[in-house]
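Protein modeling request. Please complete all fields; requests missing the sequence field cannot be processed.
Requester role: graduate student
Desired output: 3D structure, token encoding
Chains: 1
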Amino acid sequence: MDERDKSPRELAERLGLVAVGAVALTAERIDELAGELAERGGLQRDEVRQLIEEAVGRWRGDATRLTTRAGQGLQGIFAQLGLVTRDELEELELRLAQVEHRLRLVEGPAEPGTPSVQD
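Delivered output (119 residues):
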């Protein structure tokens, strides 16, 4: 299948998998890969290792930017759907608790014989 025939979702998924793979490269695997490529390409192992490390650094940066963009996109979708984030919910719970506390202070202690409102 040609790259142009793929949906944007499929392309995004492939890009995400590539980014995760690049981020997961360990120093040991980079050394192995540098050795293999140096043998095949007739280059110095250190040169190949440096090129791989530069590429991995770029891929990690791309993965970070992609993650940030995806998070921003999801936040936009959540806002359009009227959903709130956990932070927003916790902030509202705190504000509600503060208002309830202030209300109890304003109402003062209940007089004997009058029913009190329970939380």
